[in-house]
Specification:
about 190 residues, 2,3-Dihydroxybiphenyl 1,2-Dioxygenase, domain 1, eight-stranded mixed barrel
Length: about 190
């Protein structure tokens, strides 16, 4: 457990091909994966507004969530930066729950942790749902601070429950449908 952030709740991998990355994890018995095409996710990158596009897959291994992300679209992002430096992909961030992102950032600053906020998500202009930071004097794997909410409890709860009940065979990949405002699993459709 990090004395600055608490327990890690997610390992975030940025990869050139989400579908291949999901197969990698499924071969290791981790699943089922929930796949989502995210379009126009409001955020900021290095202080400038972006509408991020990505394809992301999520699964649980015990209490750890595994996320695989492939950036898409024309906006800059920390994910695109990562693949420019490491075209094969890899571990890009570790995520932690916080009650309030701004309070967490102020708290780690008060503890002497000098950091740069690279990317944030949520409603403009505050983007309070997520913050991706890097430690200034020890850059590398980023830290994602995720604000707790009823939505994320429901969103991640669906995935955790599915992993706990998964037989290792049935529907190893499921699409996330958010059309009703609540996450639900629908049959997987491979994108061509």
């Amino acid at each position: 457990m990090s004395v600055l952030f608490g327990p890690v709740v997610q390992q975030g991998y940025v990869v050139p091909d989400v579908d291949a990355a999901i197969q990698h994890w499924l071969a290791r018995g981790v699943g089922p994966f929930f796949l989502q095409d995210i379009r126009g996710f409001s955020g900021s990158y290095d202080g400038k507004h972006i509408d991020a596009d990505m394809r992301a897959g999520f699964a649980y291994c015990g209490d750890q969530q595994i996320e695989v992300i492939t950036p898409e679209g024309s906006h800059p992002s920390i994910y695109k930066d990562f693949l420019e430096d490491r075209p094969e992909g890899g571990l890009q961030h570790l995520a932690y729950w916080v009650d309030d992102v701004d309070d967490a950032l102020a708290g780690i600053e008060a503890k002497g942790c000098k950091h740069k906020v690279w990317q944030r998500y949520g409603e403009a202009p505050s983007y309070k749902a997520h913050a991706y930071i890097d430690i200034e004097d020890q850059p590398g794997v980023m830290i994602q601070l995720m604000a707790r909410s009823d939505f994320y409890d429901m969103f991640f709860g669906l995935m955790k429950k599915s992993a706990d009940e998964w037989d290792g065979v049935t529907e190893p990949i499921r699409m996330l449908d958010m059309s009703t405002g609540s996450p639900k699993a629908v049959p997987y459709e491979r994108r061509v």
